[in-house]
From TrEMBL:
GO-annotated molecular function: GTPase activator activity
Keywords carried by this UniProt record: GTPase activation
Lineage: Eukaryota, Metazoa, Ecdysozoa, Arthropoda, Hexapoda
PROSITE patterns attached to this UniProt entry: RHOGAP
InterPro entries: Rho-GAP (IPR050729), Rho_GTPase_activation_prot (IPR008936), RhoGAP_dom (IPR000198)
Source organism per UniProt: Pectinophora gossypiella
Protein name per Swiss-Prot or TrEMBL: Rho-GAP domain-containing protein
Length: 278
């Protein structure tokens, strides 16, 4: 079984999971064809068969559709963020909430040396991905390796079709890092955050709050804001594919963005209405 998950991981790592999604889509197309065939059979019998036989054919079609959708869930990984967020606020993916809740469930987890920096077993990370894509979130609670959980959470954000901080804002957010004085920089970051789609904004806030709680144990886990920024910089934002860029320079700037978001979290995410009241 471990070998199987490792092989599947190698498929997905080649093209960020598009292979697996394509296999899922192929399965869906096959079921559609099968249903079409059933429908044709039902129609061909309509003139000669008894009404009960036609109804039975329709029942078979409905049953097959129901069975398929019950066993082939829409994947969680590799999709657009808004597609995996609940409709009501806070619009944070259920998988992200469950992962963070489990990571924070005890102090031992939070004190783990190299939390988020150390890599978990790749085949186990892929196993969680596959189970979650089948809507089995219980696999998160059953995981015994904290690095596998943190690795799964990082993988989720890396495989989003559009990064948490959208590509369209990439240049603007990098430019914001160089703005002076500090007050002007904070204002620009606040404007950027407020212009994010609701699911992006609320998920970003939820994740940053979690990472700040991780830093509260930095004496034990050695994960200060700078270290977390190195891990999450390239994970939360990246340049548009068609844009020419220097990967090394981008990486430094991406890290800087996340470090500012963490260090200036309170001022960037503060409620303007609350500020006016005070």
């Amino acid at each position: 079984m471990e070998i199987g998950y490792a092989i599947i991981y190698s498929w997905s790592s080649i093209d960020d999971g598009s292979n697996m999604q394509s296999k899922w889509k192929q399965s869906r197309e096959n079921i559609y064809k099968s249903i079409e065939d059933l429908a044709k059979i039902g129609r061909s019998k309509k003139d000669t068969a008894k009404n009960g036989e036609v109804q039975n054919s329709k029942f078979q079609i409905r049953s097959k559709i129901k069975r398929f959708w019950n066993t082939n869930k829409e994947p969680v990984f590799g999709r657009k963020l808004e597609e995996v967020c609940p409709a009501a606020s806070p619009r944070v993916p259920e998988f992200v909430v469950a992962c963070v809740r489990e990571i924070e469930s005890n102090e031992e987890n939070m004190c783990t040396d190299g939390l988020y920096r150390a890599s978990g077993n790749l085949s186990q990370v892929q196993k969680i991905r596959l189970e979650v894509d089948q809507n089995n979130l219980s696999v998160i609670e059953n995981s015994t390796d904290i690095h596998v959980l943190t690795g799964s959470l990082k993988l989720f954000f890396r495989e989003l079709k559009e990064p948490l901080i959208p590509c369209s804002m990439f240049d603007r957010v990098l430019a914001a890092c160089s703005i002076k004085p500090r007050e002007s920089k904070i204002k620009e970051f606040r404007d950027i955050v407020h212009s994010l789609p609701q699911c992006n904004r609320e998920t970003l806030k939820f994740l940053l709050e979690h990472l700040l709680r991780v830093t509260q144990f930095s004496e034990r886990n050695r994960m200060h804001t700078a270290n977390l920024a190195i891990v999450f910089g390239p994970t939360l934002l990246w340049a548009p594919a068609e844009q020419a860029h220097n990967i090394a320079i981008d990486c430094i700037q991406q890290n800087h963005v996340v470090e500012i978001l963490l260090n200036e979290f309170k001022d960037i995410f503060e409620d303007n209405k609350a500020k006016k009241k005070t």
